[in-house]
Amino acid sequence: MTVLNERQAVIVRRLLDGECLSVSRLAASFETSERTIRGDLTTVQDVLTRYGLGLSEAAGQGLGVVATAAQRKALLSSPEMNEMASGQRVPFLAARMLLLGTSTYDQLAELCGTSRQTVIRDFPGVERLLGELDVEVDREKGKGLAARAAEATIRQAFVKMLNSSSLGMAACERLACGLESCDAKARELIDEVSETLDVHFSNVRLLELQLGFCIMRCVQGHSLSLEPIPQDVLDVTRDANFGLYVTALSGYEADMSDKLCLIWTLLGAEKVNPGTRISSSVAAADAADYLLERLNLAHGAGSMDYERISRGLRAHLDVALYRIKNHIPIENKMLDQIKLCIPLVFDFTNRQMNAYGRLHGIEFDENECAYIAMYVASIFESSMGIEGKVKVLLACSFGTTTSAILSSRMRQFVPECEFVGPLSHDEAERYLDANGVDLVISTNDSIVGDVQTIRVSPLLQSRDISLIKSVLFQLTYTKMCRNFLARHMGMGCDRRVTLGDFISADDVQIASSSSGWEAAIGKAARPLVSRGSLEQRYVQRMVRAVKEYGTYMVMTPGTAYVHAGTNDGINEDCTALLHLRSPVIFGDENAKPVRDVVVIGVKSSESKALISIAKILSKETNRRRLEESDVDVDEILALC
């Protein structure tokens, strides 16, 4: 069964609410690429099909869904849809009541993707929250539940609700279903204010929803001109920039009292002037939430203790933002090692932090991103739980006592592993016929199955322990890479993306074999060096990186992704691939058989080459095709 991630579930709800959605609009809404959204829509289409529904395209409007009430209810209550977290339900229900006017328990349950009983249980909390904002709940017999208050109070309550830390952006996007007609006008006003006052808003999408609600209330005929204006709204006239705000809103036809409420909302929104920042602690919390939300959407790290992780990440980002704000450069002495040893995590973190920085006028350099990447790697490894454990089979051909000693010492020295055995050689063969393991540790030279095997002394000498720990460290990292890629692909990716989107035909070579792994790196990089995309010293640095840090570059079976630092001789973003008919043993220590060598030169923080290519080459079907003797360049470029 396909379970929709949080972003995909929001898309389904918006479609079922009758909204027409374009790929470009969704990409802007979720601050992600159009390619990712197209992948999401493929997954959404699969789920819709199971409920007898389908996406239809209206010329000039986007994609939509036509569903009966029964189909809508069945899908919203289905196991494919993520149920909203309990901590978000109460503020979401309260905000939704402000949007709906009158609603029933059943309608609210459908919007939350939960049961009517759950909404009834949560409703006292909804009433308390609204009451704190001076909004009452009326129960109208035969109609339902309605939020009642003065118009200014209704608008201010909605704005404050969305500013609440209890509501994440994904939950806020669910509220957008009733505001889509006002999005364009809200964005136009934000652009006018940004240009007139030369400011950047910290969360443009959140502000769009808040202004969109105020605009919608005006469209529905709820004008502030018909009632007294609250003092805090009137106080905006005392702001030093009040005249500039009025100028910025001059193109919006509305009563001045309604414009005052918009200015109150704009003044309350977090913003930065070019070259300055809001307090680093506030910004750190915002940046941490942004990064964790994207990590969760992309890789499903949501089972973690969010509050604990968030506190730690905020503390780290608080220091980083203080350095950026005060122009204090930092040199991360582990920068190259981090980029080489956890390249997937660094690539993900670097792109996310730069995306966040573009929204808020902050520039994160590679040194800061590398430190943040270490924290992200720790979060992801912890979230893997049992999936990340290395499974080790102990094969011992000696007696019971020796086997017991081997077992005891292994569990003492590497307790983080999952052990099977000790088993005799024959028992180990039978076990491997029916089960998988990551590593075999054996006391004799016999090969047990085709799994990587380490031969050790039955009593475990110090050199045995050092070798085992080194191999286990790399195996753990490899498992993390595979989990990272598998979960990233779970987001839904565009099936039309191929290797040819990242590598040109001139940069793909096929050879029967290579004299060694160093020669393979040199040959793979040759086209890039010949045309000046890379300098020869970059090749030398790649070879040195493998010798210094080991075979971390072999992130997916049979493929090495080799690269060096940004300042090691990259003149432009570039990628090349060498395919070997016969594998080469890659590396000096913990060597691994490699059939494909991918050379990557990344100069721009925007490049998605590494993670995109790794996702393609990690697929089992693609690996099997590359093992066939007749594969050619065109087929390699067509892999997707």
From TrEMBL:
Residues in PTS EIIB type-2 domain copies: 390-480
PANTHER family, A to Z: CRYPTIC BETA-GLUCOSIDE BGL OPERON ANTITERMINATOR, TRANSCRIPTIONAL REGULATOR MTLR
Gene3D superfamilies noted in UniProt: 3.40.50.2300, Mannitol-specific EII, Chain A, PRD domain, Winged helix-like DNA-binding domain superfamily/Winged helix DNA-binding domain
InterPro entries reported in the protein's UniProt record: BglG_antiterminators, DeoR_HTH, PRD, PRD_sf, PTrfase/Anion_transptr, PTS_EIIA_type-2_dom, PTS_EIIB-like_sf, PTS_EIIB_2
Residues of the HTH deoR-type domain: 4-57
Domain PRD: 279-386
Keywords of the record: Repeat, Transcription, Transcription regulation, Transferase
Record has Endoplasmic reticulum as a keyword: no
Protein name per UniProt: Transcriptional antiterminator, BglG family
